[in-house]
Amino acid sequence: MRLFAAIEMDDGMRAALARIQESMKQAGVEGRFVPPENLHMTLAFIGEYPDADAVLDIMDTIPFEPFTIRVDGFGCFDEVTWWAGIEKCEPLEAYVRRLRHALAEAGIPYDRKAYRPHITLVRDAMYDKAPVFEEPNAAMEVTFLSLMRSDQGKHDRIYTPVGVVEAC
Ligand code: ATP
Ligand code: MG
């Protein structure tokens, strides 16, 4: 199965991000908008791996206290993948560092690109003007982290949590 560790958005954050997506559509942006139920922030992308429990066991060994993430600006990858960024968040970065280290120690593969925390909003975006969008005031408290499996649905991906780890 295709696995990734992620922060699932809470209802308030989902709604705030969905409003940003709406304003992008209003402004004429076209592309594959991430359905609101799929909005998330990836911590580590593991990819095809058979043993979800082994990954959850590793996540369980890394304690963390609840922390807040706050949307801060937008960015893009390759001009066509547009995302919302977040304010610098030391507890998040510390968790991701530890998680990746523990995965490596256990020999579980993951994508080793430098970590850029982001929440993807639209893929294959097309737009003919320099985009200017209203800065949202969106934040959430993170009290659990999820191991997600990703399956290809008819149109969009289907993400299903296979387990969660709770903050102490
Ligand atoms: P699709 O690939 O069909 O457009 P998707 O990217 O939403 O859909 P997945 O490819 O399963 O679905 O990815 C799940 C999550 O992991 C997404 O947040 C995606 O950005 C991230 N991800 C996917 N591949 C990688 C990778 N090689 N490195 C880092 N993150 C990745
Ligand atoms: Mg992908």
Structural write-up:
The chain is α+β, with helices and mostly antiparallel strands. The protein has a 5-stranded antiparallel sheet with strand order 2-6-5-4-7, with helices on one face. The protein has a 4-stranded antiparallel sheet with strand order 3-1-8-9, covered by helices on one side. The mean pLDDT is 95. It starts with a strand and ends with a strand. 24% of the residues lie in helices and 41% in strands. A hairpin with a 4-residue loop joins strand 8 and strand 9. The chain has helices at 11-26, 52-60, 90-105; strands at 2-8, 30-33, 40-48, 67-77, 81-86, 118-126, 139-142, 144-152, 157-166. The protein is built from 3 helices and 9 strands, in the order βαββαββαββββ. The protein is globular. The protein has a single domain, classed as Cyclic phosphodiesterase (Cyclic Phosphodiesterase, Chain: A, Alpha-Beta Complex), CATH 3.90.1140.10.
Defining key terms:
single chain; alpha+beta; Cyclic Phosphodiesterase, Chain: A; four-stranded antiparallel β-sheet; binds adenosine-5'-triphosphate
Briefly say what this structure is.
The chain has 3 helices and 9 strands, in the order E-H-E-E-H-E-E-H-E-E-E-E. Bound molecules: adenosine-5'-triphosphate and magnesium ion.
